Amino acid sequence: MSQKVRIALDAMGADHGPAVVVAAAELARSRHPDSEFLFFGNSTLIAPLLDARPELKSASRLIHTEIAVRMEDKPSQALRYGRWKSSMWLAIDAVKKGDADVVVSGGNTGALMAMSKFNLKTLPGIERPAIAVLWPTLRGESVVLDVGASIGADAEHLVDLAVMGAAMARILFGIDRPSVGLLNIGVEEVKGLEPVREAGRILREDKLADLDYQGFVEGDDIGKGAVDVVVTEGFAGNIALKTAEGTARQISEYLRGAMTRSLGARIGYLFARSAFRQLRERMDPGRANGGVFLGLNGIVIKSHGGTDAEGFAAAIELGHGVVRDRLLAKITAALARPGKPPRQALGGAAS
Amino acid sequence: MSQKVRIALDAMGADHGPAVVVAAAELARSRHPDSEFLFFGNSTLIAPLLDARPELKSASRLIHTEIAVRMEDKPSQALRYGRWKSSMWLAIDAVKKGDADVVVSGGNTGALMAMSKFNLKTLPGIERPAIAVLWPTLRGESVVLDVGASIGADAEHLVDLAVMGAAMARILFGIDRPSVGLLNIGVEEVKGLEPVREAGRILREDKLADLDYQGFVEGDDIGKGAVDVVVTEGFAGNIALKTAEGTARQISEYLRGAMTRSLGARIGYLFARSAFRQLRERMDPGRANGGVFLGLNGIVIKSHGGTDAEGFAAAIELGHGVVRDRLLAKITAALARPGKPPRQALGGAAS
């Protein structure tokens, strides 16, 4: 890593176009002046945006690309037309080549994961990468992973998720031994969760120095902030994340409706406006923006595609933070924990 | 079914004791005068409550039981000490014997499911029962099942869930062909979801008369009310339900905090109080109280244990409604759909 934090940006990956990405980079740089940017995308669109920001331009390089990955395409399609030459691929490739320390894209999640895997490859001992998110809780934030990079997990994969998630929590929350829980359901004596129970056994018995295993947690423990790191396989994790987002949106609709229904409510709303603004900000997924792909030879940050410049800047700043705090090196060290069995010796039931 | 709706109540199953159950029965009967009750529980506690309500008492029978199932016990423990003689077992048994049309309990969910399965047995062709809930959405309510009765599902089980859920939606929402979606995650080309995809294929090709299959839905579609019936296996379903409850509680905490932080917010709160009350009621799980156990030779309603009399009454009234509308007969008829393959011919991957 150079003294600067070099961030590769897929400028074609935001729903609202390169203007959001460039404005976000300017915001991020205003708060982290040690940032440098590599913009990948259509130079006809991007060059004028940089010309209008001389200070940002002086810390940026623009690499023209003809091809942008479309949001609706399947990963295999995107790989077919976008490999070697799309803005997304080349932004990832900058990390691979060592030209950048981290890559941020708001583009097609499946394509971003497929290209990241294909190009960066997984870390030694890791079969499948994971997507980790910062989940707002009553106690602050928790790391939740995997939220959909892959489906099903054997016990050893769940343990790897715990180790990677704890490394991320340690850095982002500044906690020495983050607490870790395995997402499970409250029904006792059920069949079919051998991998989760086995992972619990390993975490309990191994007593890893870098994390404090707390046992099983249920869906409603996530929002409570019961643990710093919630570990789950990707199917249930994705459903939990999307369901929480849906519930937050639903309540905010109710609230909007309730606040306009009567004169009293409308007057109340005027008085309580700033309180509502705070609430909206806490509930806004854009504030805790950015999934982090873990388990690869490089850090890839996925921003929400539909976010504004402030939201995209949050994803860029998350990228800046994990580079400054050497997340990748710490994960690599933590994964090489003593006593970890070789993968082929494991009998967990991957589905 | 008699002209009356005969409801068996596990009077020992509510966290706040028989007083809640008896008060709930009185409330339910005031709105549904054709209700009759069988109370199972400690007569020393219950008799005085009924004596104080002569009108309710005239429509009730009290059956003394010595044993109450404890909330913290595992299903196998509860079966060991509670079979044949606990209030929970005997309330279920009243349905088995034809003394009651439906049973309502707020007790230990795992024990209630275990006893229900053991005593009532599953319907022909159904291997495992399911728990269905009414989920509040922006469009009203949806039926979501299974939320945790069992883990994993083969394709045919998912199709059975769709059929049972649609029968419930038809009755409760008065829709001829309820729309049905299979809960899935948005990542394309993923391995491991064969059962969900196979169930989708069956539902698409069979074009069942009683439901309108709409394809896959994601977690955030539940709260939108995108479909009338959301079908999922129990692990993901339970995590979705608990996560939504946790998120709702979390936001309501934020709201409480935000509304007391400044003078303006406090004044605003006074004006908007009734709007907040409405919001709380819509978000309150007690309002849409009651999971329904489907797939058994008898209908079992699970109330939240921690609810108040109004919440428990909602569960009783849900029971009243499904009896009046002959849910069990309709499910039995719908499950015997033409062309349904015998179970042993199926190759779905139960986990």
Question: Can you walk through the features of this model?
Answer:
Two copies of one chain form a homodimer. By secondary structure, chain A is an alpha/beta fold. Helices cover 47% and strands 16% of the residues of chain A. Chain A has 14 helices and eleven strands. In chain A, strands 3-2-1-4-11-10-5-6-9-7-8 form an eleven-stranded mixed sheet, with helices on both faces. In chain A, strand 7, helix 8 and strand 8 form a beta-alpha-beta unit. The radius of gyration of chain A is 21 Å and the shape is globular. The C terminus of chain A is likely disordered. At the A-B interface, helix 6, helix 9, helix 10, helix 11 and helix 12 of A face helix 6, helix 9, helix 10, helix 11 and helix 12 of B.
The most extensive interface, with participating residues per chain, is: A-B, 73 and 74 residues
Q: Order of strands across the biggest sheet of chain A? A: 3-2-1-4-11-10-5-6-9-7-8
Cα-to-Cα separation, first versus last residue of chain A? 38 Å
Number of helices of chain A: 14
Model regions low in confidence, pLDDT < 50 over at least 5 residues of chain A: 343-351
Arithmetic mean of pLDDT of chain A: 88
Number of strands of chain A: 11
Element order of chain A: H for helix, E for strand: EHEHHEHHEHEEHEHEHEHHHEEHH
Q: Give me the Rg of chain A, rounded.
A: 21 Å
Approximate helicity band of chain A: 40-55%
Based on the structure, what is the oligomeric state of the protein chains? homodimer
Summarize, please.
By secondary structure, chain A is an alpha/beta fold. Chain A has helices spanning about 20-30, 45-50, 55, 75-80, 85-95, 110-120, 155-175, 195-205, 220-225, 235-260, 265-270, 275-285, 310-325, 325-335, and strands at about 5-10, 35-40, 60-65, 100-105, 130-135, 140-145, 180-185, 210-215, 230, 290-295, 300.
